[in-house]
Amino acid sequence: MKRLVWHEVAPKGAQALFGVHHYITTDTNLPEEMIHLVFLRVSQINGCAHCIDLHTRDLLKTMPLDKVVLLPVWAEVPHLFDPQYRAALAWAEEVTRVSETHAADEAYAAAAAAFEPRDLVDLTIAIAAMNAFNRLGAPFRLPAKARP
């Protein structure tokens, strides 16, 4: 079934959301690689094929294949990710699954210990934005670049 192209139907809404993306990628102190890693992990949880494809391709430009491939099980391979990246991934999972986790105090404390206040807020904005993109990309079946 052909679905609407959300960003064409609501260009002002898309512009607003892309404005948040621009802020995250240009006006924060978060490393670009960390941002894309969090974007990919959130997209994996939410099952957005377009975003998984896009952020995997972005990460493969700067990150070894092993790290990208093992991202879904990052907690089982702690030697591949430094402590701050592990904290970012844990917080990304916590916030993405907020209906289940309720952003537990323990998870917040761990994230707050790993990031300066502004960076933690910016990381949370990045997580929220990717959740929003996933909630548009998946239901409207934004296509992936991957081809047979």
UniProtKB/TrEMBL annotation:
Domain Carboxymuconolactone decarboxylase-like, first and last residues per copy: 12-94
The protein's name in its UniProt record: Carboxymuconolactone decarboxylase family protein
Pfam families from the UniProt entry: CMD
GO molecular function: peroxiredoxin activity
Source domain of life: Bacteria
Organism (species): Sphingomonas suaedae
InterPro entries: AhpD-like, AhpD_core, CMD-like
